[in-house]
Amino acid sequence: xxxxxxxxxxxxxxxxxxxxxxxxxxxxxxxxxxxxxxxxxxxxxxxxxxxxxxxxxxxxxxxxxxxxxxxxxxxxxxxxxxxxxxxxxxxxxxxxxxxxxxxxxxxxxxxxxxxxxxxxxxxxxxxxxxxxxxxxxxxxxxxxxxxxxxxxxxxxxxxxxxxxxxxxxxxxxxxxxxxxxxxxxxxxxxxxxxxxxxxxxxxxxxxxxxxxxxxxxxxxxxxxxxxxxxxxxxxxxxxxxxxxxxxxxxxxxxxxxxxxxxxxxxxxxxxxxxxxxxxxxxxxxxxxxxxxxxxxxx
Length: 298
Ligand SMILES: NC(=O)c1ccc[n+]([C@@H]2O[C@H](COP(=O)([O-])OP(=O)(O)OC[C@H]3O[C@@H](n4cnc5c(N)ncnc54)[C@H](OP(=O)(O)O)[C@@H]3O)[C@@H](O)[C@H]2O)c1
Fold this sequence. Notes:
Strand content: 15-25%
Number of strands: 12
Bound molecules: NADP nicotinamide-adenine-dinucleotide phosphate
CATH class of the domain at 2-135 and 169-192 and 266-281: Alpha Beta
CATH topology of the domain at 2-135 and 169-192 and 266-281: Rossmann fold
Shape: globular
C-alpha cells in the first residue's frame, strides 16, 4: 500500500512519514525541491510537486493508494487542498486523511481556520473515504521561543487566560498513521488535544520552573503591537519563519479570538484521542522539560 504524504518535510509530515514506515507502509513524500541527502530514510520515494500545480500533483498521485493531506501555512491553502482532493478522487484513491485544525468551525473569522473548515465540508460532502484530524496548538511551536525565554525571560505568545488546547506533533502523526493503516476510521473526525491547556501565565510559570529564572508573560493587551512585531520579525511559531504580512494578520486574529473566547478542550475529547492513540497524549509540561534539557545541553 503506497501513501503519498504532503508537507513531508515539515514538522507534522516528517513525523507522519516515520510513523507510516514503522507500520510497514510504502511512503512517497511530496516536496517542492529535491531534498538534501538524509532528509528521508532511503525507503521513501520522493515526488517533486507543488500543491498549486495540478499537473505535478496528478503525477505524484500515480500508483498511490492513500493520501495524507497537510497544507503548509499559505494564503491559498484552500485552493491547494481542493486541487489535491479533486485529483485524489479522480485517481480513485482508497482513503484520504486530512490535517485540519481543532475547532475549525468555531473561528471562521480566522482565514486559516475558515479555509480548513471549507475543505472539511467538501471532503464530508464527497464520496471518497476519509478521516479528518483536528489538531490543537502544537507544543513544538515553543521551540521558536528559545531566544525570548532564555534571553530577556519573556513568554511572548498572547495565549490569554481562558485556555488553549495543545498537542504534540508526534501524537498527531501517530494518529494519522493509524487512520491510514487500520480499519475503522472512515468518516470520522478526531480532535487532537492533550490533557493540559495553555494559558499565558501558566506557560510563564512552567518555563520559570524549568529554566530556573523568572519568566514574565508578555500579556495580551496590545494586538496592534503584536501584529506589527510579527510583520517585522516573522512567524513566532517557527524558528525559520519569514516575515509574512498576511500571516501576521491571520495569527493576530487567531490569538485575539483565543483571548476572547478561549480554545478549550474537554476531558472527553482527550479521552477519545487517547483511545485512538492507545495511550494518553503527551503533555505540554513533559515536552517543555524535553526542550529545556536540550537547550541546557546545547
Ligand atoms: N502551528 C500550530 O500550532 C498548528 C496547529 C494546528 C494546525 N496547524 C496547521 O498545520 C499546518 C502546518 O504544518 P507544519 O507546521 O507541519 O508545516 P511546516 O513545518 O511549516 O512545513 C510546511 C510543509 O508544507 C509544504 N509546502 C508548503 N507549500 C507547499 C506547496 N505549495 N506545495 C507543496 N508543499 C508545500 C512544505 O514542503 P516543501 O517546502 O518541502 O516543499 C513543508 O513540508 C498549517 O496548515 C497550520 O495551519 C498548525
